[in-house]
Design a protein that fits this description.
The complex is a heterodimer of chains A (127) and B (205). Chain A is α/β, with parallel strands linked by helices. Chain A is built from six helices and five strands; from the N terminus they run E-H-E-H-E-H-H-E-H-E-H. Chain A has a five-stranded parallel beta sheet, sandwiched between helices. The longest helix of chain B is centred in the C-terminal third of the chain and has 46 residues. The interface between A and B is medium-sized, with 31 and 33 residues.
Chain lengths: 127, 205
Amino acid sequence: MSFDRSKPVLVVDDTYAIVRIVRTLLNAQGVLDVEGAGSGPEAIRKLNQKEYGLVICDYHMTPMSGADLKLIMDGRPEWAGIPFLLMTANDKAAAVKLKDRPNAPPVIAKPFTAETLLNAMDLAAAA
Amino acid sequence: MVEISPAAAAPHLDKQEEHADHTVLHPKPRLREKALVKVAPAGMTDDADMIARAERAVEALEPSFAEWMSSAATGLMAALVVFEQSDMGPAALNEMRLAAQNVRGQAKQFRYGVVAQIATGLCDHLQGEALDVPVIVVRRYVEAAASVIRAGISVQSNETALELARQLLVLSSECRARKKQFDEHMAQDDASAAPARSLEAHREL
């Protein structure tokens, strides 16, 4: 199943530069509605206001990690079905931490190319 | 003379009505056809085009990478100052770890290979419940990452930067070896003191 590019995407990362890079990659792939959030709580505020087709989120964040945001989303029926993709610079550690979690999202390791991101988005949509 | 059928003569027409003084042409409805083409799933070529376009778009951002890395270095230095003045407990360690992870993530994404290597070494020291090396070692890592960023070294082949990263790894392994030795020594001391302590406790009874 491939990701529906007509739906808005929420990119969550406490580093502005990464949000900018992901937004640029997505825009060039035909995803025009891309919004950024600098933290988990900000992402939750945005999720309350709009219906997103995909959430791409950094793993290491404070006060809420990307995995914690996913758990919160899983607890809300209206958000549980939104495809979710985690980004991390340390994919091995993330894999270990997510090993026993139900509905663990796909993880994309930094650095990622446009192709990797596109494939991961399709994977997240199919999950 | 060869007769050409109306359909062959005007393939774009659905039908043609002939009237006394005029002709009505009905073109074939193509709208659905066009719409179907637009929503058809992207094929391999489309994907390759899109990926190439996306890579070019990111390349256009490359002039900003140095500025973003520089602000990440400033953030890391600020986090270190706060960490050094703190109790270095779990909360402070967590803040420091996040700052280091941010630098590592950006360095990897923006292909600052040596900085990513240094930041990974720093993250390793900040992974546990408590710092596993003296705080001065953390400072050495932070300063090294900031220096490489400020010097604008993004290539993995810069010998000076690589040497700096190597020296930090040596420093880390020396500190860890010393800590291990110390812990083993303390454990031996505890083991030899245990029977004496137990005898004292027995006498008190």
